[in-house]
């Protein structure tokens, strides 16, 4: 999967390009963002426009900009970001890198959800799946029909897990897309996938460690509930335990979400660290930035889930109507529409969440580690 070399990022306000964007102009040209390549090449340098400065020939970078006059060579301003900058940058990353963001999310989700659709289709027209219009298994069905129903729903559950693993890889790709977009480069699908080489198994390991941690935490909390209920001789200790522990457990999960779970993926993708090093980097970057990071992350999740629900609702509704109209094919209709709904939902939700997370990672590094200076140097922005 290759899309050719990375391209220069379009200037702010430009429409999404239908063709690859021309590469940066040659040294000693002064065409401002948005100017055609011909305006800067083949006609001499001409007068220097305001805010631009020549970059020394042979320095290995594109023409420099006056520091302070132009801090946005790509999708992000190279300075600490506010909420508007973060969302604008996320949408620009998706808009100008559609194959590596939306395309990747659609592809991995569609491939994963193809399995239950094919399994259910075969079982429906061979063995048969005895269910009612709501998709519930008929208790009077034969053993073969019961096994077919379990196979259909089991394949759906397995595919949901596979789809989520695929989304993890999309998140890793989007981290590289964001890093490139910050300095004005566009990555195609093949380039973004190639950029994850050497980190894919670590990414899976990181996902496993993070999810196992939350699973252990949840199991421990449930066991504490069991102990409290068993040893309590009256309902009052159980009530008091619930009033105290439920808000505390939710607060603990929110705190660990940001400090432990939220930032390790972009750190793993963009830094020379391993699984536990990435967790440590996320912990370090979110230190003293918890409430701001949590607020943006929570708002992003709410927006993504609401928008994803709106996008997938018509498909789910159509599936329920078909199931009522053709009850003998209710399971096939429900699984098919569930697959389509998830593809539609992930086409927006997965890239948006991944892009915002990656932009927040870049923002925190600019705030704490002067990462913007490194990005400016890479983008060719130098003092006049």
Task: Report what the structure shows.
The protein has about 375 residues and is mainly α. It has a domain at about 90-210 and about 290-380. The chain has helices spanning about 35-40, 85-95, 100-125, 145-180, 190-195, 200-230, 235-260, 265-270, 275-285, 290-325, 330-370, 370-380; strands at about 5-10, 185. Strands 1-2 form a two-stranded antiparallel ribbon. Helix 4 packs across helix 5, helix 6 crosses helix 9 (about 275-285) and helix 8 (about 265-270) packs across helix 9. The relative contact order is 0.15. Mean pLDDT is about 80; it is low at about 1-5 and about 20-70.
Index terms:
384 residues, mainly alpha, two-stranded antiparallel sheet, globular
Task: Please specify the SSE layout and strand pairing.
Layout: E1 7-8, H1 37-40, H2 83-96, H3 99-124, H4 143-182, E2 185-186, H5 189-195, H6 200-231, H7 235-261, H8 264-270, H9 275-286, H10 290-325, H11 330-369, H12 371-379
Antiparallel strand pairs: 1-2
Summarize the structure.
With 384 residues, this protein is mostly helical. It is 66% helix and 1% strand.
Number of strands: 2
What fraction of residues sit in β-strands? under 5%
Class derived from helix and strand content = mainly alpha
Largest sheet: 2 strands, antiparallel
Shape: globular
Low-pLDDT runs: 2-6, 19-70
Strand ordering within the main sheet: 1-2
Helix percent reads 55-70%
Task: For the record, give the distance between the C-alpha atoms at the N and C termini, rounded to a whole number.
Answer: 40 Å
> What's the Cα radius of gyration?
26 Å
Mean pLDDT: 80
Order of helices and strands: EHHHHEHHHHHHHH
Count, helices: 12
